[in-house]
Amino acid sequence: MRRIDAAIVTLVTLVLLVGLGAVAWKTVERAEGVLVPALEKKADAVALSVASLATEAVGYGIPVPRFVGAEAVLRAALDEDTELAFATILAADGTVTAEARREDDIGFARRGEADIATVTRAIDGADGAVGAVAVGIPRAVEARVLRDLAIDISVLLLVAILVALELTAFAFALPSAARLRGITTRLSAARAGRFDVPPGASDPALAAMDRAVDARRARLAALRERAAGDGGAQKALETIDARHHLSERPAGAVNLAVVRAPVFLFFFAEEMTRPFLPTSIASLAGPVPGLSPEVVIALPIALFMAIVALSQPFLNGVTERAGRGRALRIGALVAALGYGWASSAGSLIDFTLARCVTAFGFATVFIAAQGFVVDRTAAGGRARGIGLFVSAIMAAMLCGPPIGGIIADRLGEATAFQVSAVMALVAALCAFVALPRTEGVTRTARGTVRFGDLPKLLARPAMALLLIGTAVPAKVLLIGLCMYLLPLELAKSFEPAVIGRVLMLYGLAMLVTVPLVSRLSDKQGLRVPFVVGGGVAAGASVLHLVLWPEPWGAALMVLQIGVAQGLSTTPQSALVGDLGRQAVPDLSEGALYGIFRLVERLGTVVGPLLVGFVWTMTSAMHAAFVTGGLVIFGALAFFVAAMASGDGALRLKSAGRTP
Amino acid sequence: MRLTRRATLAGLGAVALARPALAQTPFKIFQITYRGETDVERGFRAYFEQRDIPVTIIHRSAELDPANVPAILEEVRAEAPDLVYTWGTPVTLGTFGRADSVDPDKHITDRPGVFTMVSAPTRSGVVPSRASSTRNITGTSHVVPPEPQLRAMEAYRPFKKLGVLYTSTEPNARAIVEAVRAFQAPMGFELIERTFRLDGDGKPIIDGAADLVDEIADEGAGWLYYLPDTFLSSNIGSVAPQATARGLPGFSATERLQGDALISLVSRYFSLGQLTAYKAEQILVQGVAPASIPIETLQRFALIINMPLAKQLSLYPPLGMLSYADVLTAG
Predict the structure, then answer these.
(1) Are A358 and A304 in contact (CB under 8 A)?
(2) E-assigned strands of B51-189?
(3) What is the ipTM of this complex?
(4) Dihedrals phi, psi of A523, to nearest 5 degrees
(5) Contact A72 B318 (CB under 8 A)
(6) Is the separation of the CB atoms in A370 and A351 below 8 Å?
(7) How far, in Å, CA of B161 to CA of B153, rounded?
(8) CA distance B274 to B39
(9) Would the CB atoms of A60 and B323 count as touching at under 8 Å?
(10) CB atoms within 10 A of CB A201
(11) Mutate to test the interface with B, among A52, A67, A68, A73 (most CBs of B within 10 A)
(12) pLDDT of A626-657, one tens digit each?
């Protein structure tokens, strides 16, 4: 990154951190003054309602110590308001005649009296109070409510900064910013006495400057010609050239950052639905004959994934012909339509159709954006280009779930879908501003997917197990376990915001791990160990579910899956390139990866259905362990096949690229 | 006795569709009751007043004897009313006849009719099914089904044994006992049954009733169930005090016995009258054929707690029940 960019990004980050941090701190501080009395008010309302019933009973001549079924009334009050620790009825002499305590929570009832705030209301007889109703709220609840708020705000802060950085990067890529950067690079080069500035400035003034440099360059070349044979003159010319870097001319790079912001915003929209999508489906799902409720919930998710997977080969050609930028905009608009529809869907059929619409839009955006990068990068820069694209998706996986969870929590799931629709529209708008309106189709040598090649690829055990033993189970684990089973299970005791925070850990882990590993695994030729190790670690992560109380078990599991898949994903796709080229040498790289992505995506389709099926047959915990076991088994099977094959690509350093 | 009434009456206003056109001669309705005017008739009349539908009501009572009905029917034929209203099973059967043996010479067939307070319209033969009478009448029933009754008893005081004392010659009572028997296994209780003794003519007699109550108490019943049994209702004074003396709480399914039972789950007579009036309105104002109006009961019941008796028995109601029950208090 250039210095000025770095300076601006640092400045933006600092301004945001200080500004938003101050607002957040003030908010939490204010909230304490509002939330705590509100909690006590709620407790008071409960006490008052029980006391008025008790007063009525006393009015009928029932003495307080003779109340029947008072525990049930108190228990019902506690069940209605889960924040209360206890409710008691006291006789006039202060003895407790009936009480209900919450025993299921972490030591609520066992805490000392000092940790519990008590609200009391009198039971009135004909001649004054004959008893009282006392209701207790643990101070821990007050602390917890404030802590939850602080966490929500911190997540918002983090996401706001990430979004701001994305948009800043986006702004840098826009033409006006490109001009500004052209000036600064030329100025800083000039200040250092250098002339090795990349060409391609569209601004007339800059172009004039470049032409002047070109003239000097031509003059230098001419002088060199004339100085042929004159050693001293040649040496002097070399010195000038070396000092001013006159004849070095770096190749102009296509700016791919413009596609990053639309991709980020668009995936953000979809990732927002993660924490509550399964429960949304569950709330609409009625009984379907012959299918368990778990499988019914899995179906719309699997259908979405199937549309995305199966439309990819076809969409590549379509988006290329239509123009990637235009396809991306249309795809985002279609997806926005789907979100809008989903927000108002009243039946499962309605909702599923809405999701299908979004799936088409989603697949279009994905393929168009990927194609945009591939079209504009030569083989050498492609890994970096795809890396840019993938890291935008990972950033969205980090930002989307917690925000979606918070919105669903505080404003409802319908609103969250509407916000997704707006995000998709903004993504379309970004694409409209930044991506070319019309583009000359620059056909690259990107083969189409030929399914006829699949048997040839799978004929090699190592290749077959790489695809079916590691790539597919990885997606089964991600979509089936993390995006389907986990949100449903956690929703039984946690709110969407918590689920969103759990799921964001996947994006966080990937975002940190992938860049670290891609260099390491490339340099040291450790691809097989990374793929196998990552698989085993990902599969073993389900153990966290039994080791820790929820939601920590789920959080650690998701985090470990993120790290493990971050370890294996880049080496895995590099191995696909290595093995594929050997298996079917005439297969183009594009076609090879097309097949790989397609097979891999089948895992996203199978994932929810498989997990749902095992869940129906056994239990959620069993389903998690079966999935984990499958991932470990697949990784080990691949390891055995890789060792047995004696294939050089599986051991040695390889020059393979990692699209 | 004073009744603290909290529960609101079933929202009958909601079912009324269109306000009728007025300025017409009042509808003439001929009411035949079993034992004089009750809250049912008051609810019936109130409904028409509320809806501004002018009606002229002629009221006659059978004075507790169905044998008086034929004479009243002579009067009905002379008056030629727009609608005939009957109260209770005996009067209804006397007026309209059994569905399978209607005699146009004896029964009213040329005038539309509404009946009320018929506890078992199908079993007693008034109509072939609750969906339709298939003839010129429709009506309402006041009986609360057994299950909510048993649940109400269970909610107040869980029981393993339930006593019932009824009249073996009353088909209605027998039918209800049979229905309750079916709930023994699913709800996990045992029914202790006793029937009133019969004299030489097969008529029930009250002698020995106290002994029967003692037997039920001795077998460990948690409740004594007062059925809508005509003989029992008339002789409750010889049954309820003995039960109370033995610490056995009574449960009633009719409003009439709310002062004798510890709790009653009843259809409010007033509300039932309103529901019956609604059916009458459909016939008179909207011109709907009675055969196409189903026979119905109220959907909401009132739980009545007899607080003086609760004190006497030392069986106070569960606190939570006070938030939905009506409470009878002394005073």
Answers:
(1) yes
(2) 55-61, 83-87, 113-116, 137-141, 161-166
(3) 0.72
(4) -70, -40
(5) yes
(6) no
(7) 11
(8) 10
(9) no
(10) 21
(11) A68
(12) 999 999 999 999 888 888 876 655 654 444 44
Residues of chain A in contact with residue B311, where contact means CB-CB under 8 angstroms, are 61
Closest Cβ–Cβ partner in B307, B311, B317 for A68:
B317
Question: pLDDT tens for residues A386-419?
Answer: 777 788 888 888 888 988 988 888 888 889 999 9
DSSP B297: E
Q: How far is A46 from chain B (nearest CA, A)?
A: 14
Q: Are strands B296-297 and B137-141 parallel, antiparallel or unpaired?
A: parallel
DSSP type of residue A253: P
Question: Is the CA virtual torsion A362, A367, A373, A379 positive or negative?
Answer: positive
Q: Which residues pair with B157 in a beta bridge?
A: none
Residue A456 CA to residue B257 CA, distance in Å, equals 89
Can you tell me the distance from the alpha carbon of B329 to that of A414, in angstroms, rounded to the nearest whole number? 51
A66: chain B residues, CB-CB within 8 Å: 316
- What's residue A619's pLDDT? 87
Distance CA B47, CA B59 (A): 17
**Token pair in block for residue A67:** 């109340």
Q: How confident is the model at residue A262 (pLDDT cuts 50, 70, 90)?
A: confident
* Predicted TM-score of the model (pTM): 0.58
Rounded CA Rg of chain B? 21
**Measured between alpha carbons, how far is residue B300 from residues B9, B10, B158 in Å?**
8, 6, 23
Give residue for tokens 């070319």: A436
Number of other residues whose CB lies within 10 A of the CB of residue B302: 24
Mean pLDDT, range B106-128, rounded to an integer: 91
* Nearest Cα residue to B163 out of B107, B255, B63, B239: B239
As to burial, measured by CB atoms within 10 angstroms (0-12 exposed, 13-18 middle, 19+ buried), residue B259 is middle
How far does B245 lie from chain A, in Å, by closest CA?
Answer: 21
The pLDDT assigned to B134 comes to 92
Q: Which helix or strand (DSSP H or E) is residue B224 part of?
A: strand B223-226
- Given an 8 Å threshold on Cβ–Cβ distance, is B319 in contact with A60? no
Rounded alpha-carbon distances, angstroms, from residue A99 to A76, A118, B35, B103 = 12, 14, 50, 67
Furthest-apart CA pair in chain B: how many Å?
65
Best probe of the A interface among B157, B319, B322, B323, by most A CBs < 10 A, is B319
DSSP assignments along A7-55, one per residue? HHHHHHHHHHHHHHHHHHHHHHHHHHHHHHHHHHHHHHHHHHHHHHHHH
- How many residues comprise chain A? 659
Which residue is associated with the tokens 């790289």? A589
Contact in structure between A281 and A345 (CB atoms under 8 Å)? no
Which residue type occupies A430? C
CA–CA separation, A495 and A582 (whole Å)? 50
Long-range contacts of A93-102 (CB under 8 A, 24+ apart): A95/A65, A97/A64, A97/A65, A97/A67, A97/A70, A97/A131, A98/A67, A98/A70, A98/A71, A98/A74, A99/A71, A99/A74, A100/A71, A100/A74, A100/A75, A102/A78
- Angle between the A139-173 and A3-59 helix axes, to the nearest 10 degrees? 150
CB neighbour list of residue A551: distance below 8 Å, 6 or more residues apart? A490, A494, A498, A499, A502
Q: How far is B313 from chain A (nearest CA, A)?
A: 12
